[in-house]
Amino acid sequence: MDPEWDTYEVKGSEIIDKIKEIIRAGNVNRIRVVQNGEVLLSIPVTVGAVATILAPYLTLLGGIAALAAGAQIQVQRRTPPRSDV
Questions:
Q1: What pLDDT digit, counting tens, does each position of 37-74 carry?
Q2: What is the spatial distance between Cα 3 and Cα 80, in angstroms, rounded to a whole number?
Q3: Where are the domains of the chain?
Q4: Is residue 7 within 8 Å of 72, Cβ to Cβ?
C-alpha cells in the first residue's frame, strides 16, 4: 500500500521555512522536496532526533532553494494505530 502524501507548492525561498513549520506541527514520518516530478531530497523524520537529523538537510536545502524556482514539499504523516473494538 502506497502511503498518502500531502503536497504543498512553495517557492525556492520558502522551502526551509515551510519544512520547519511542518515539523513543528508534528505527526510526520517523511518529507520530500520534488521539482518537475523528480525527488530532490527525501528526509526521514524521527521523534527525538529531529534537530540532529535535520541540520545537514537544512543546509543542503539552502542550496536547493536557490535552484528550485517552483517546488513541491510532500509530507507523509503518521497515522495512529487502528484499534479494532
A1: 888 888 877 655 555 666 676 667 666 665 656 778 88
A2: 14
A3: 6-77
A4: yes
